[in-house]
Amino acid sequence: MGKAIQDLRKEHDAILHVLEIVDKMLKDNTKDDSAKLPSYNEVVYFLKIFADKCHHGKEEKYLFREMADRGVYDEDGLMEVLQQEHNQGRELIAQMDKALSAGDFADFKTSMTGYGYLIRSHIRKENEALFARADDFFDFAEQDRMFEAFEKYEENVIGHGVHEELHGLIHKWDEEF
């Protein structure tokens, strides 16, 4: 497995871990929703920045494009489906954000639960199908080049130190929930 795909898989692991924490957060009856509001807002921030802007951005700007530009045909429509799911995820994150701004915890939970189902299925498709294709198609040198592009993209798009800040939030939620 090449470096670029390893990086994306590692980010999938982080996203799945956050979804497990969120499941616990939503089921936690020791605090009411108002007390959990700061954590809910942090989760939405994490999903906007890490899952969508950073992770999905790398996939769309580099992996999907490189595969299409280099002749990996989407005969089964997988990349189109994955792009649609990225867009659905963005819509659900926007719904979560709107619900929290309105103090509508029921709508937040509904949108968050829907997002969890969508992204778990999405990650399974990428891990089992798309990444296998990419590993077959891109050699180690090409993946190293793509990984370097990922690193520059992350620095330019989310900024220095934000990745570490987001992983700090994961650690905080692990302890709290």
From TrEMBL:
InterPro entries: Hemerythrin-like. Residues 4-133 form the Hemerythrin-like domain. This is Hemerythrin-like domain-containing protein. PANTHER family: BLL2471 PROTEIN-RELATED, HEMERYTHRIN-LIKE DOMAIN-CONTAINING PROTEIN. One of its GO terms (cellular component) is plasma membrane. It comes from Anaerobium acetethylicum.
